[in-house]
Design brief:
The structure is a single chain. By secondary structure, the chain is mainly α. It has four domains: 145 residues, HUPs (Rossmann fold), CATH 3.40.50.620; 148 residues, Rossmann fold, CATH 3.40.50; 52 residues; 94 residues, Orthogonal Bundle (Arc Repressor Mutant, subunit A). The protein is 47% helix and 11% strand. The strands form five sheets. A three-stranded parallel beta sheet has the order 1-2-3, with helices on one face. α1 links the parallel β1 and β2. α15 crosses α16 and α15 packs antiparallel against α19. The longest helix is centred in the last third of the chain and has 18 residues. The radius of gyration is 31 Å and the shape is elongated. Bound molecules: glutamic acid.
């Protein structure tokens, strides 16, 4: 049987990390089985759903190469289908009208809670034979006894007691269909074979299977994915992590890095850490997904992004870097050796935005020295700066090798430990203690610029005395 999977986001928020992981696993499972991947927009909650969130979700997925095989469908445009299904359930005697008021339901809940019971609808309208009216909802007649078991590709055999499930609402009193009904009808009408979704939906599954059975639909394959957790081991949320995919792109994480990171949330393959989409289609096995929650580790994402950035050709890297250079105000045409500068700094930080920021002092004057660095290394370094400046000014050939020779000579003559020699010069050149090897750093500037920057540092020292 052809595998058909779907990602069914509710457009009530921007595309978030957990959602992308669900979409990715659905996509990969469909592709590796030569099946189809669909997207269904579950926008029945008219108050909270917006077109902007819908576009954000669809665009975010498309940006990382997760495109559906058919145009996405929207539940808000399919109400007729759900109403017909509800009629069918009524005809087969598997549903009933219920006119319990909100007050009566609240009362029922309170009584159950004070008796230490799980609050649930007690089925009091089940046998009243009520007719449809403006204040009735349609409820499913859920079997009272026995159990409902299904096989989950991740969790194995899952069993629910029917006595734990109440008669859920299929149609509200205004006639609008509820989430569970729409979800089941759509999975059937879209030919879905496999439901892969977050573990937070696990308790919905027996309810939805009861609706399927009432409609005579075939059963589906299920896989409930472990929750994505923040570093505090709590469910990933805006409080413990950056959750929006776009925010990661804005920092300069690559699409392929996000895919790599998300694939590893709950799944692994031996020691292999670096995966691209094609590798996943080859290697991923849904049965190997773990049950325990998966921690989203931002240090790991940095490590992965470093690898993916390093794997880019120089031109591809440059192309990806360009918008970040613009965003920090760097105009590469200002420097003849801009390619050389970028090549030297390309792995300075794990994100493109970080690299772009590190490049700023190579394209414009140092605005301020990092205070801590200046206090630790610059203060009292006049003799070093003057010695090196004088020696560098005397160089006839200006390149990394000749500069390195000057630095070696300075170290011997002044008999200083390396940081005492290098850091003051580094700070003078870039404002901070971080840069490539000092000889290389200096060679990225021309000799006049080096002389000027050391002068500025000496002036700063004179003023701070
Ligand atoms: N619309 C649901 C959600 O966004 C997903 C339902 C499902 O995948 O079955 O959580």
């Amino acid at each position: 049987m052809t595998k058909v999977t779907r990602f069914a986001p509710s457009p009530t928020g921007a595309l978030h990390i957990g959602g992308v992981r669900t979409a990715l696993f659905n996509f990969v499972y469909a592709k590796q089985n030569k099946g189809k991947f669909l997207i269904r927009v579950e926008d029945t909650d008219a108050e909270r759903s917006t077109k902007e969130f819908e576009s954000n979700i669809l665009k975010g997925l498309s940006d990382i190469g997760i495109d559906p095989d058919e145009s996405p469908v929207r539940q808000s445009e399919r109400f007729n289908l759900y109403k017909l299904a509800a009629e069918k359930i009524i005809e087969t005697g598997n549903a009933y009208w219920c006119d319990c008021s909100k007050e009566a339901l609240d009362e029922m809940r309170k009584e159950q809670e004070s008796a230490g019971k799980k609050p649930m609808y007690d089925g009091r309208s089940r046998n009243l034979g009520l007719k449809r009216s403006d204040n009735t909802v349609l409820r499913l007649k859920t079997p009272k006894d026995g159990e409902l078991a299904f096989h989950d590709l991740v969790r194995g055999e899952v069993i629910f007691q029917n006595s734990e499930l109440d008669d859920l609402i299929l149609l509200r009193s205004d006639g609008s269909p509820t989430y569970h009904l729409c979800n089941v009808v759509d999975d059937f009408s879209q030919g879905v074979s496999t439901v892969i979704r977050g573990e937070d939906h696990l308790s919905n599954t027996p309810r939805q299977i009861h609706i399927q059975q009432a409609l005579g639909y075939p059963s589906l394959e299920y896989a409930h994915l472990p929750m994505v957790l923040g570093q505090d081991k709590k469910r990933l949320s805006k409080r413990n992590a950056v959750t929006s995919l776009q925010d990661y792109f804005d920092q300069g994480y690559l699409e392929s890095s996000m895919i790599n990171m998300l694939a590893r949330l709950g799944w692994s393959k031996g020691d292999k850490e670096i995966f691209y989409l094609d590798d996943l289609i080859e290697d991923f096995r849904i049965q190997e997904v773990q049950k325990a929650g998966a921690v989203f580790d931002s240090a790991k994402l940095d490590w992965i992004n470093n690898h993916h950035l390093a794997a880019l050709s120089f031109d591809a890297f440059n192309e990806r870097l360009a918008p970040f250079l613009d965003s920090v105000g760097i105009d590469v045409t200002q420097k003849k050796n801009s390619r050389e500068i970028i090549a030297a700094l390309r792995s300075s930080k794990p994100t493109l935005l970080g690299v772009a920021r590190d490049l700023i002092p190579y394209f414009s004057e140092v605005q301020a020295y990092d205070e801590k660095a200046a206090n630790k290394f610059l203060i009292g370094s006049e003799a070093v700066l003057e010695f090196v400046q004088r020696k560098l000014n005397g160089l006839e050939i200006w390149n990394e090798e000749s500069i390195d020779n000057v630095l070696k000579e300075a170290q011997t003559k002044l008999s200083l430990p390396t940081p005492k020699l290098n850091q003051p010069i580094r700070i003078a050149m870039t404002g901070s203690t971080q840069s490539p090897s000092l000889g290389l750093t200096l060679s990225l500037f021309d000799s006049v610029e080096v002389n000027n920057r050391i002068d500025s540092a000496l002036k700063y020292l004179a003023n701070s005395n």
